[in-house]
Amino acid sequence: MNEIDFLISNLKEWNKKFPELHIKYAYEHSTEFHIVEVEPSVMLNENKEFRMMAHRTWRNFAKLFPFAELLIDSKADVHTMTDVKYDSASNINEYTFIAKMLFSSRSSTTWKKVTHISYPSEQDILTTNNYSGYALAA
Amino acid sequence: MLLKSDSFSSSADMLMKNGLLNPSAHLAYYSMFIFLKYVVNNYLDLSYIQQDNDGGGDKSHRKIIDRVVDDLDTKDEDASFDVNRYISAMKHLRAKADYKNEPISLHDITVHLGHAENIKNIVKPLYGISV
Fold it and tell me: How far away is chain A from the Cα of B11, in angstroms, using its nearest Cα?
């Protein structure tokens, strides 16, 4: 298991325990840092259970990958978050959307995602036909 | 070494106030790192000579930092988490300040200097360092 797989596996565990948490993980090539941003920052600063979970991940990472650098922090402009490896928000949006489409009693239509450009808001899904970025499956 | 650490910290503050942000980040990092070297020498059974024998570079820094964080885990895991966070954030900004041509903001430096002070303020009472 490499650094990225290890972190993604751990971050998924964080999200299982704290589903409301927004976790974004990117690799910053210029500094060779693995950066994990956590929101809301109050979780990082005050939630003891989460802090200990994050601490264990951090210490295990340090032992398994002694030459790799990890930063777990709140969102900050100084982080270059372009090479994203994991983003809990996109997962939640996608799964929420697909679940609404599949299990909605309003329609038996199956929808197929054809582009990753944008997601409709919950309001769009429930009240309008604005399914931009999606098309009917054959 | 504590005096040296404090002098680096004061210098980092002066540089920041004069708009020299990259060297300020560098000195603030070393203020923190020299402080950790002091802790390892005085409380964690690795003398300055032994530390020097491990050579320089990021690998030797990692060894000093891990020694402190490992010991903090046995004293106060909650404090250890914060110290580890602050150290990592400082390493990250120092890497940008020293080696990369990326802008560093006054806000970044202010946070960075705060991390250095936070680390000392957390660690000192755990080892009974009163200076």
Answer: 23
